[in-house]
Amino acid sequence: MKTILIIEDDLSLSNGIMLSLKSLEFSILQAFNLLEARKYLSKADLILIDINLPDGSGLDLCREIKAQSVVPVIFLTANDLESDIVTGLELGADDYITKPFSLAVLRARVNAVLRRNDKGMVQCIGPFRFDFQNMVFYKNETPIEMSKTEQKLLNLLVSNANHTVTRDRLIDCIWTNGAAFVDENALSVSINRLRNKLEDNPKKPEFIKTVYGLGYQWES
Length: 220
What we know:
Layout: E1 3-7, H1 11-22, E2 27-31, H2 34-37, E3 46-50, E4 52-53, E5 56-57, H3 58-68, E6 73-77, H4 82-90, E7 95-98, H5 103-120, E8 122-125, E9 128-131, E10 136-139, E11 142-143, H6 148-159, E12 165-166, H7 167-174, H8 184-198, E13 208-211, E14 215-218
Parallel strand pairs: 1-2, 1-3, 3-6, 6-7
Antiparallel strand pairs: 4-5, 8-9, 9-10, 10-11, 12-14, 13-14
Pfam families: Response_reg, Trans_reg_C
Keywords: DNA-binding, Phosphoprotein, Transcription, Transcription regulation, Two-component regulatory system
GO cellular component, one term: protein-DNA complex
């Protein structure tokens, strides 16, 4: 049974969502602020997050989640500002639903995201097999040992395959605590280590490309 975490400070709305999703035989966890939510993150298969919470922003929580796992995130919010929608999606949110919304539409979106996520947990790309659920990685069926930082970096790049991920976004998502104090050289070092483990010729990378002046891109 899949477990869904609802992070919503409106008790009535949260209970309505809970009853609607329970009808699909999901297990439901409820949190009404960021402090409560962090206790349940490791138990969730999908997370519904309101952007505006009493003790902070759901956007910041999404950044934390996506830096540590591949659990899908759907934003539920009354804020339909384009800038917030773009920010949420750039942080890795899988969908974005603006209040008020139909519970039938919400159920359909939840099921669609879970289907996509189940298919994307294990990715076979050329000589590689990446299992982001269990964080195990292979090249030509030979296991590749990676640090937590390298795992996060690979996840971000592969999740955005064939699109440039900026240096700022990589730093923000990987070093969530104190990103402002991270030396940019730390990212370059991590990229080089990842290339050394994945590329046949790290000096002429086939998969992890540098996009000069912007960031990096996984090409597949």
